[in-house]
Amino acid sequence: MFAVAGETIYWAVDHKPKGTRELKRLRNIRANPNVELVADHYEDDWARLWWVRATGHARIVEDEGEADRAVEILAEKYPQYRSDPPPGPVVAIEITRVTAWEGDPG
What we know:
Layout: E1 3-5, E2 8-12, H1 24-31, E3 34-41, E4 50-60, H2 64-77, H3 80-83, E5 90-102
């Protein structure tokens, strides 16, 4: 789950069961902040397929104010976060490039 605010994508570690809060993806971001996020849409009618790829630099949000705003943005998009906000940490991806493709709806 992610939300976009301007040129920044936010996501947060949620409540789903995990062995640790120090997830491999967070360690990967610390080691190499160059990331890509892909969102896609599938239908049996291949003419209606599409994807968008955002390339950017990720960071774990340290500023509490920014983290709180990010969780608010996520809660606006995902109703389940309104009553049970994700505990974090929050990740911000500063978008540097966007590429996309879509099928031919004819």
